[in-house]
Amino acid sequence: MNVLIIGSGGREHAFAMQLRKSSACDHLFILPGNAGTAVLGTNVALNPNDFDALGNFCLQNTIELLIVGPEDPLVNGLRDYFEATTALKNIAFVGPDKTGAQMEGSKDWSKIFMQKHGIPTAAYRTFTSENLQEGIAYLQNHSLPIVLKADGLAAGKGVLICQTQEEAIHELQLMINEKKFGSASTKVVVEEFLKGIELSVFVLCDGKNYLILPSAKDYKRIGEADAGLNTGGMGAISPLPFADAAYIQKVEERIIKPTIDGLQKDQINYIGFIFIGLMNVNGEPFVIEYNSRMGDPETEVVLPRIQNDFVELMMATAKGNLDKVQLEIDPRTAATIMLVSQGYPEAYEKGKVMTGMENVKDSILFHAGTKLGENGELLSNGGRVMAVTSFGNSIAEAIATCNKNAALVQFENKYYRRDIGFEFL
Ligand code: AMP
Ligand code: GLY
After folding, report:
1. Which of 60, 126, 187, 424 has the fewest Cβ atoms nearer than 10 Å?
2. Can you tell me which atom of ligand 2 is nearest the CA of 298?
3. Same-domain pairing of 138 and 162
4. DSSP-derived secondary structure for 147-168
């Protein structure tokens, strides 16, 4: 069958690699894709939010399976568009509808959902211009630090952790009155700070059945020892030493089952990935956020561990047959290190020539921000440029291979963290 992946990052390159391994995958298209996906299929230069163009492309190319990587086409209602269009509605589609994507698209919506269904999460209140004065008074007596979250999508930048009440009040005013995050901060969730170790749990849901995928930890800060600005993610490992079967069972009972049951009670036909961002507070899991997609770079360690035929797994998800699937997981540890452009997550240069990839042994290179130059040379084309993923019998072993190979890929102003997994070594 012909398969279309939407997106252009390391996550989508990892999807493409898994799909390519399946004999059921004929033509593979990636929209818009990157230089890595171009080797595995055909990149399509269309805007994922131009639904008419996307629909026509699917018809012209007899797409039978569509997998959506990023959140915004989902939040904008891509699935709803396909369901409402006679010629498109039979395409197997992995990704929730507009309502389901509110899990990620609105922090306030997801907090109400969690509260309604008894899912452990930080205490919170939501404020808008209508009750801003009440919000200021609320912050004056709030324990420190204080977490402020723009309600809507803010490209991963909408969460502020404030160390004083004054800072929190100032930021709340900026978010609501000055639209610090545009319309995303018309509403602001004020949340209790949770102290612990973060982990990401991924669930594949077919509307009624679910499978728990391997869990992972993402290293979000730009600097070593978790210092500096937040990024999209600088590296990841899977599995985590503390997230053993007993811990995952606790997460399943307290969080995953109530989430799936809650979606059903609320009549949300959720078909796709649910990314649950958890804080492990003294052994007890709390939800920090839901995302309606896979994580990046978590996908670059989670997917390589999945040994099932990926077309079959995605078709079972889209068609409601996950109860017939048994996951086969590689027991080894996978680690990934993200090579980024100096300056990221702030201003950085693109278009740097990349070399040395042919010297890499025992790692998988997932392209994130790359493109082909006019003479077929590989160029950097983003802040996050390439993920170097390796397996090992321990975190130390996997990371050592990543570090060895991260040094071999060359481009001007390359930067990467050499301490991914540090707290477990
Ligand atoms: P998000 O954009 O929701 O992923 O949040 C960004 C980061 O803020 C998370 O990865 C956490 O490190 C941190 N964070 C979010 N909510 C909380 C919270 N309630 N307590 C502590 N840290 C938080
Ligand atoms: N790595 C975090 C995310 O994908 O949101």
Report:
1. 60
2. 1
3. yes
4. EEEESS--TT--EEEESSHHHH
